[in-house]
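Lecture notes, structural biology module. Today: joint structure prediction for complexes of two components.
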Amino acid sequence: MTTTHKTAPTTLPRLLGGLEHADGLATLDRHVGFHGALTVAAQPGRPNDMLRESVRASGLGGRGGANFPVARKVDAVLGERRRPVVLINATEGEPPSRKDHVLLRGAPHLVIDGGVVCAAMVGAHEVIIAVEAGSQREFAALDQALAERERRHVDGRLKIILEIVPDGFVIGEERALINALNGGPGKPTYAPPRPFQKGVGGAPTLVQNAETAAQLALIARHGADWFRSLGTDAEPGSALVTLTGAVAHPGVYEIPLGALLDDLVAAAGGLSAPARAYLIGGYFGTWIDAARTSGLRLSNADLAPLGGGLGARAIVALPESACGLTETARVARYLSEQSAGQCGPCVHGLAAIAGGMELLARGDGRQLPDIERWIGLVTGRGACRHPDGSAKLVGSALTVFADEVRRHTVDRKCTGNGTPVLPIPKRAATGRTA
Amino acid sequence: MSDQLRVNWIRCDAHGLCAELFPERISLDEWGYPVIDPAPIPPQLRKHAERAVAQCPVLALVLEHTDP
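The predicted structure, tokenised, for the full assembly:
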């Protein structure tokens, strides 16, 4: 039997509540029946200060990966003189992440409610929700939900527009997304101006990720104290995690921030094979040796001493039967091909790193000192963080898989069984798509 | 008040003039793109920095003034 969340849920799930059934909370009646109606409405031109202060008190950080405080983005937009717009970033170009897709398909109204909450906070007239061309099921779920809301006059004068943008890894970067929506290529632009100054159509733009929007929809219903009753003081609330690789039941899970990795793995039915390492934070994340994960908590504060962070919370358990260097080489090549191709150090540096890693995976370590130098050389030298994130991943591989490096270069042995673990989109195989 | 050189990487096409005009703070990587030394620019080097900024054929070099 499904429990209802009309009263504030005291335990998990929060965002994933009501999604046990195949069609989830796709219709407005099921959504409102489960979560209750959203009682705040956007009043164009009149920012709702009380709502903003409640969101500030919640301490919600952006769930797209950067964990930037939502209230500070709202403040920045409100500091501009021109009429703001809201952009919900519903793209999920990170190959090992599925959490936004699951949320958009199962609870589209919760994400849309979050767009309304954003509009209410800044007094926007317009909310744009952007999905990738390849996200057809997510588009359909949002499209139906929006049609139903319009039929029933749920959102008053607020205009909510669904937009389709090209697929790709870089499109999720907020300036690339805005560039695409403005009719340009889906590539990052030079900053300043930043989106809060000049975004969609040149207007000050509040950009929030789809999961962040859904969290806002619940904070507007249940308040800041409720939100903070899960998670840690510094990183409050729940968060969606995509756990894949060597676990019995790969999928999207909701955890309190600061939860034990061990508990998450147990929730996924345990390991299906002994783990060598975990990739935490997706393809801009870091490898963490499985020997160091006992008692490890999933928060940025807990991961920082290991050189890591949660990012968009995609976690992959790498089985001992796989080779971490081969896996990293494949991802390094993918990330190099996904470069928008605008900035020299990213174009040349990531290609060089990928080539060096491919040699290393084949047992040729001659470029090892170069790879380490290139990692330093590309970091901080691009219009966006694509080179930084890519370099960080490779750097962590060289540290965590130091034994494998030695085995490859000295013993000339790769112990991997050749079965790929980390996903690479097929479309990307032919090269640059952005 | 201190000055910091910044590169607009989208514009930069590796012409390399900046490194010739301001070798005290700018070198080139193996692909010809500038590597900026983050050390502060003393007053006697300011003219070099300004010249490098002005001579960049694609205006990719920016001298930013930041309050410490």
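Point to remember: The CA atoms of residues 278 and 317 of chain A lie 5 Å apart.
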